[in-house]
Specification:
CATH topology of the largest domain in chain A: Transferase(Phosphotransferase), domain 1
Strand content of chain B: under 5%
Strand content of chain A: 5-15%
Largest sheet of chain B: none
Number of helices of chain A: 34
Structural class of chain B: mainly alpha
CATH class of the largest domain in chain A: Mainly Alpha
CATH superfamily of the largest domain in chain A: Transferase(Phosphotransferase) domain 1
Largest interface: A-B, 51 and 48 residues
Shape of chain A: globular
Distance between the termini of chain A: 85 Å
Structural class of chain A: alpha+beta
Number of strands of chain A: 12
CATH architecture of the largest domain in chain A: Orthogonal Bundle
Shape of chain B: elongated
Largest sheet of chain A: 7 strands, antiparallel
Number of domains of chain A: 4
Order of helices and strands of chain B: HHHHHHHHH
Number of strands of chain B: 0
Radius of gyration of chain B: 21 Å
Oligomer: heterodimer
Amino acid sequence: MNAACPDITDFERLVSGELGSPESTFIESHAASCDACHRVLEDVRENNLFVEPVRQVMNRRISRPTSDRPAPPTHIGSYKIAREIGRGGMGIVYKAEQLNPRRAVAIKVLHAGLGSDGRIAKMFQREAHALARLKHPSIAAIYEAGEDAAGRAFYTMELVDGLPLNEYARRNDLSVEEKLRLFRSVCDAIAYAHQRGVIHRDLKPGNILVVVESSDPASINSLAGGESQSSNDLPLSASSHARDPSPKVLDFGLAKILESDGSVPAVTSPNEEGRIQGTLPYMSPEQVRGDLNEIDTRSDVYSLGVILYELLTGSLPYAIDRTRLTESARVICEQTPGRMSLHDRTLDADIETIALKALEKEPPRRYTGASALADDIGRYLANQPILARPPTLAYQISKLISRHKAPAALAAVMLLLVIGFGIAMSILYSNASHNLQRATVAEKNAESEAQRAKQEAETAKQITKYLVDVFSVSDPEIAQGATVTARQLLDKGAERMTQSLEGSPAVQATLMQTLGSVYENLGLYEEAKRMLAGAYEKRFAIDSESMDLAETAESLGTVLKRLGQLDGAELAYQKALSIMRKRQGLSGDIHGSILLQRLAEVQEEHGNLDGAEESLRELVEVFRSTPQGGNALPSILNTLAGVLASKGKYGDGVPFLREAIKRVDVNMYGGAGTLLRLRGNLAWLLAQSGESREAEELIRDVLAERRRILPPAHPELATTLITFGVVHLNKNRPGEAEPLFQEASQIRAKAYGSDNRATVEARGFLGLSFVDQGRLDEAEPLLLNCFDALKRGKQASPHELAESALRLEKLYSKWGKQSEAKKWLKISIEMEAKPGDTKEGI
Amino acid sequence: MEWITTSTVLSSLRDFDNRAAWSQFVDRFRLPVFRFALSTGLGDTDAEDVAQETLAAFAESFRKGQYDRSKGRLSQWLFGIAFRKSQDERRKGARRHIRAGSSELGSLSQIAIADEASLSLTWDREWEQALLEQCLDQVRREVEPITFRAFELVVRENQDANQAAETLGVNVKLVYNAKHRVLKRLREIRSEFDRMI
């Protein structure tokens, strides 16, 4: 084609019949003689035949109305609207001018259907206040929230000139390192907000704009937030790349308002296909499931994981069909992300490990917050070892099997299993070789590290060979049979292993450990116990003090705990801990302290309060000496005080709670609630140990605060009511205590059922308030019923039972029924003296 | 992301350990099978099972060299398997209901098991739709957002080119170019499906 040739506009107009006859004749005759133009014209014709089917597909897929848009308003509140810059499911974003102070802002107006009763507008106003406190160079500032004349909620924020993160990276062809640096700044901004108790809840590339500090302010104004980016001025030249790019995160914390209002559920119902497109792929499993209570900082970590994955590979971690909501939700909740290295072979295994840790389905397996994620990225960039570890083999296999529970064609299952193992093995291999590389670099222990790495690689090889043997079709019964479940294959593998690996106990033990964990993850605790006990025996025979043995003992402890075999669980944990203590000491070791925490839980659950106290005291010491233990310390101190209270040692718990209150960081997410709980608990201990004056001041405060923030029938309110009631009792005001205990009993009966230990506790206090008021005939049936319920329930500690009996003793002495009183005193003493259960072997 | 031809996907499927090939294969063909299974009256979970089992069965026969293009297109092979699997699944479902004594049994039996001929039409529709959707996704990834947006305005929203140009604040030639490029690329990818399979 040359300058004289018609252009695409002419051809299109020709084909659509818009041109008059002289023009069309000219173009057609030109095309007949010019090959290039002839081809273009043919293409245009073919294209136009294709339009209708394509239109049908697009319309079926996205059924939201897009036409009939009204013209933008000229003013909203006191803002002068310049033009629309984006729109989406939740609202429309305009560029606007504010008169005082004079500045350009972005204004987002929610659709009329959202919170048209003005509630949302009010929530926005309240929330905007909190959000305005977020002052960070990488967070777009929120200025104001309000309501327009039509009652639609809007808010204004900093107008950001930038490109969505992915788009920026793509246009400027950023290197992996440049992408990571940018991503790390995003994490830092999110971490800053998390520390102030604000969760974003709707992170996605469109909510992260990259701004290039430019001398020319008139570049582009883009805003997104579920709102599709309007592309009016999109072309931001790649030449501005040389300047320092900095990310800006938009729409912080706003999703929460819409969720809590209920007008925008976390996941729209499946019949509203396409409505939440754009956001869904970045939502965490807990958000997709709509578990609003589960959403915390780790939900943002998940979204960051998706963003990181997409930033580095150009693809989402899973193929998500945005038109089918239920299906996509299932994928997000169940499917393992595709390997990043399949998209880009040059990506390092460590960076994949980091992304996958952020993308874990279960929040506890993710990074605890954006700062931990940022730190690992930082370590990676500085060539330091990262903290994230790839998922274990056992975890991967069990995931694989739990996805294929239904009987399926043998071929399919086998295929998936073998491929799955292949992947798991390749991870093991790469770990081993990775360690090997690290070992050569490491200055100290280089030799032993290298040796260990070699051993790991060797074990991995043997295991692979074994698995291939097990799962190849050598069994005629399976080969001919139509279906078999993955579970059957697993059982067969477990069975065969005991025979075929007799000669190599170390490999056998490793496999038993792995299969044991697989069974555990599948909820098959008896099978898990059998495998792990086998692994324990073998590892014990090899070396009774090895870290491998500690690993098995820990897994075994967890399985026994699940089976309710608390004695065994306690012993197993003790064994694991004793090895760890000898090997490396517990201080500074997060893993060791988690184990210690589990031990304390088992002991408490099991009624071994002395043991629990001892473990918790050790744990407190460990955490006091560990810098990163600081955050967990308040909760450990609280548990310790609780154990002491269960033993009746109320006064002993007081200093621990005071320390906890001092250490809790109210700026941390949930910190304010924790503080309130700790103060309530402290009031309780003070009341129980006779410090009524301080207790009363404290509890009055806490109750007022809780009544303010909690719904009327919230169980936590009952706890506070009881504490306050006890303070009244101690000050000899049973009449004032009674209504508080009544309310608490009702709340707890509704929340937990009438025979629950907590409900019975409230009723017991109510009975006591009757006794103190001399209403003995009302107190008697209530207190007798409490004692019975506690005994029946079998969950009460000896101290609780003794206390309950003691109330009956008090009742009958007051009544002058001395023999009854004596009987209950005796029961009380017996209960208190009851020794803990004897321990059994594992 | 590069578009990998379907024939590449299929031939890599022969490699037993190629997990990537399997997932590409599933990505490409799961949707039509899944939707087809839904249209036979199955629920989400059962339809998903049908999709997985159909693809696994096809992969298996493909590996054994049983897939013979001269005896029918991939689409027809998959339809044959998907049809059988769907009927199996429905029968299983009916048995489950009978065992469970479900009151829904009545409504279930009202959905008569459709004959193969009419389901074949459903299949063709779902197949075409799903392939086109994939083509659209791929092109969307390949072009600049503004190009795709311009295409959307003229094709999906039926705006004329001048109107679209005004909405986007660009000149009309850019709109025509966008429409042209996107449709041409769509046709290329779509015909690649037909050519190779």
